[in-house]
Amino acid sequence: MFGRVKPLDAILATAEKKSLHRSLGAFQLTMLGVGAVIGTGIFVLTAEAAQKAGPGMMLSFIIAGFVCAVAALCYAEMSSMVPVSGSAYTYSYAVMGELVAWMVGWALILEYAIAAGAVSVGWSGYMIGFVQNTFHITVPLELVRGPFDGGVINLPAMLIAAIITGLLVLGTKESATVNAVLVAIKIVALSMFIALTLPVIKSGNFTPFAPLGFTGISGAAASIFFAYVGFDAVSTAAEETKDPQRNMPIGLIGSLAICTIFYMLVAGGVIGTVGAQPVYGAHGEVLSPGTSALSDACKAVNENAVVCSKEALAWTLRQVGHPFVGWLVGAAAILALPSVILMMMFGQTRVFFVMSRDGLLPEFFSKVHPKFHTPHVITIMTGVFVALFAAFFPVGLLADVSNSGTLFAFGAVSVAVMVLRRTDPNRHRPFRTPGVNIVAPISIAGCIYLFISLSKATISLFLGWGLVGLFVYYFYSRSRSHVGRGLVEVHEDDDDTPDLPVPPLPGV
């Protein structure tokens, strides 16, 4: 299981051969992290969290943020010590061997592809709300929601996924200026929301604080975790970072701290102004987000609850007498979220490409387009699946499934830090995780806690996905692995790396 380890020195040699231009400093990395984290999670999942935990979602944000913080400290040590692309997959290959690396890469498919579908659905909600409130057009629910959510198909979500796939195949490169503008739009939108809602908060809206008990808070934390995912995107920029040993930890932890403050203030604004109590069924039963039952219950109350909204922040502002600012927040989400989908799909194609180059997936997957110099085959395949996910599944379900893969990857990195401390104690560590024997186990325990707080259906799906991954590994990948065949030296020459598009600042 742990026999096929890709030597750290070989991985570092790859970075030297690539010689990517190192131009990112601590500030740029922090902004990259802020752009990566702020997005669909806070714009959309606030309603999902309210249905699961009520005002207790404030505590859910703290729990999810804490787990991310200890995981970030582990990421910081690995990314500063091994400043190469590949993130959790690369770290696992170097420390715990090929099988674990394969399972992490397999789990990252859930993180990236499913997350892209979730963001597409989130974008659809804001786009439809924007169209209906701007042009006073009523769009049939059957065409903008999947079958689990009281509709038939989500056409806008499917369309945006298809457009982004086309852009990735063409290799469109977004400039740093455009990326910075998108981050600024999101931050300005959330700042306006906070400034207009906090002064009119009513303390009575915070009671009962935990209508569904701590179980509801835990379930909301497991979903809200999606709102923090993205900070690990900072570690994928390690090869292009000036003084990564110093700047990577600053970028990781700094961006997480900024986003946590934003989230707490936004959640407080929603709860304090319009309330965030769950909507119950006709007989007082608890209803799950993203279900037909909840959709029917929302119709019964004329959609007059934040948990019913597909554009929670814009809806809240309209309710408290700021329709124009609500319109602006909706516009900000519509403008900024497509870059998130692009980054998630970019990350997916990069993971597939690297695994294919390692021999773990067919070489056909890493086929590069002769004109556009992009891995068009796997990009189109990924785009088709993302579009189907977005068309038929609700955002909450997609976010939870994505979280299951992400939590597995984060846990693996936390294990890798401890293992490497024992197997290679003398290696230079520019950043050392403080109290690693305490922080890393807390990170692992936190990931397990959030994982088991997910729905039974999500956990079952993840375990089923893992079994499929093991089958593929033992019946295909193991016998074709470059490391297993002793081809590491040949593989380390990365001259054939395709001209992939420069990833924009994402934001989950």
TrEMBL record:
Name of the protein in question: APA family basic amino acid/polyamine antiporter
GO molecular function: amino acid transmembrane transporter activity
Spans traversing the lipid bilayer: 26-45, 57-78, 151-170, 177-197, 209-229, 250-271, 324-347, 377-399, 405-423, 435-452, 458-476
Membrane topology of this protein: Multi-pass membrane protein
Gene3D superfamilies according to UniProt: Amino acid/polyamine transporter I
Pfam families: AA_permease_2 (PF13520)
InterPro entries (alphabetical): AA/rel_permease1
Keywords linked to the UniProt accession: Membrane, Transmembrane, Transmembrane helix, Transport
Lineage, highest ranks first: Bacteria, Pseudomonadati, Pseudomonadota, Alphaproteobacteria, Sphingomonadales
A GO cellular-component term linked to this record: membrane
Organism the protein comes from: Novosphingobium sediminicola
Compartments in which it is found: Membrane
